[in-house]
Amino acid sequence: MPDPLLAALAVPGVVWVLVAAGAAGLAYGFAGFGAALIFMPVAAARVGPVEAVTLEACMGLASVVTVLPRALKLADTRDTGILLAASLIGLPVGVWLLKVADPEAMRWGICAVAAATLCALVAGWRRKTRDSAGALLGVGAASGVLGGATGLTGPVMILFKLSGKASAAEVRASTIAFLTLLSMLLLPMLWVQGLIRAEALWLAVLVVPVYAVGALTGQALFRPQNEALYRRVAYGLIGLAVAMSLPVW
């Protein structure tokens, strides 16, 4: 086994990172959201925000071959295209913030955003805006900034889509398509800013397969009629991840 891979296995807390990756993949596969909300608080607490964002972006590569092909068949491609185009405006800003921000502050920020998103979802918050091009541009740009800075590519999109009127299957597919492709765009942005480190890539060799297995399992479990159950499970996993990862421990 290569020495860098052995070093990755020796990272303190790597087991929790792998557990979080598996849980993130499972939630993403059956609910279409929650991967970063579960993974990022745990990973940022164990390996640091920059490495955690790199890992989250690498996990998006696994989604390309596990859940994206099926999702593209049901996704709203027009909306997804607008969201992705707008995210290109926000991503560089977010990655720059990740580069210059204090790691401890970023950990608090990641936990705060995840917790706030969870509270809004559990409370049943509903937006009043329509799916206009302007709203989609705003959601895409905001997702880019937040995703680049914290790795949490999903909160804005999740709140926007889950509070709409589309079917569970379409929401799941559109969310998967956007978040997966946004994660892929994040990798080159991190590289341009000089934030991709060899240690994180070796750790990704361990994390990505675990995430992929979780995503495939979750996708196999998905049944549209069980939408409420999927959401409750995802909410529970997000809450547990946030509670475990608060910088007070």
UniProtKB/TrEMBL annotation:
Protein name: Probable membrane transporter protein
Pfam family, one: TauE
Transmembrane segments: 14-40, 81-98, 105-125, 137-160, 172-194, 200-222
Main location: membrane
Entries under InterPro entries matching the protein: TM_pro_TauE-like (IPR002781), TSUP (IPR052017)
Membership in a protein family: Belongs to the 4-toluene sulfonate uptake permease (TSUP) (TC 2.A.102) family.
Membrane topology: Multi-pass membrane protein
This protein's UniProt keywords: Cell membrane, Membrane, Transmembrane, Transmembrane helix, Transport
Entry's localization field: Cell membrane
Record-level GO cellular component terms: plasma membrane
Organism: Vannielia litorea
